[in-house]
Amino acid sequence: MSLFAELRLIPFSRLTNGSRWRVEAMRSYSAPQLLWITKGQGRITVGGVTRGYGAHNAVFIPAHTMHGFEMTSQVYGTAIVFSGMPDMELPDGPHHLRIRDGAVQAELTILVESLQRELDGRRPESKRAIRHLAGLVSVWLDRQILLEEDGPRRPDSARRLASGFAALVEKDFRSAKSVSDYAAELGVTPTHLTRVCNRTCGRTASDLLAERKISEAQRLLADTRAPIKEIASALGYASPAYFTRAFQARAGASPTTFRKGH
Asked: Where in the sequence is the signal peptide annotated (predicted)?
């Protein structure tokens, strides 16, 4: 396994150079990641909860957690992707930390810069150094979570419900399950679930579900040669025609047009 398979550092400038839909679409990754934002501001949705972010914010996103990141070319920072590190001690849930202490900000920045030197330089014992530095990043993260307002806050019932819904969507969005099905599984009414999602992230429950399906459809259209009818079936749509209408309404182009452009 190469060093690059174990940990990756992705500057935000590389993310914003790509297609905007890839950055902002609701999606998830198979590896945990820590976003270290050093300049700029915007909004980020993680696990059904939307918050504003600014400079010196650290956002931890566990593996397989649905999220969307609003980002412009004026936002700077680094994504630390802990791929290939199953033994790394990292938080189980998402965290959004606002780091106000300059010394603590510098601590993480120095760790990121040290990781980058090890990844770039192919120095002796780089693999060992990278694993130790990644461990120090995880310690830094745990400390800030523990110190945040004298201990982590217990999320309110609305955020717990929204996070539960987002987790179920991430697990089952390829099925034909409706918002009513998800609400029943969570033990609430569809109306209550929609009200809560509106409160926590400014989207209805139907919007969150549709955005996750369409972002996956965009990825499949851009990155594979799978026929459109197969993509529609794989994402739980009743027919290719229904999928095409839903896709065009969300993406602003038909699946065929979108694929040609990417």
From this structure: none
- 22, 91: one domain: yes
> Rounded CA gap, 171 and 53, in Å?
27
CA-to-CA separations, 193 to 160, 186, 259, in angstroms, rounded: 11, 9, 34
Question: Any idea which residue has 């309404």 for tokens?
Answer: 249
Q: Same domain for 86 and 164?
A: no
Dump pLDDT digits (tens) for 192-207: 999 999 999 999 999 9
Segment 152-169, tens digit of pLDDT: 556 689 999 999 999 999
Q: How many alpha carbons fall within 13 Å on the CB side of residue 223? A: 8
Joined together, the tokens standing for residue 7 give 């940990």
Residue 128 sits in a domain whose CATH number is: 2.60.120.280
Q: What is the pLDDT of residues 101-118, one digit of tens each?
A: 999 999 999 999 999 999
Residues 174 and 125 in one domain: no
Spatial separation of the C-alpha atoms in residues 80 and 108, rounded to whole Å = 11
Neighbour tally for 187: CB within 10 Å? 9
Domain extent, residue 223, equals 157-261
Q: Are 248 and 241 in contact (CB under 8 A)?
A: no
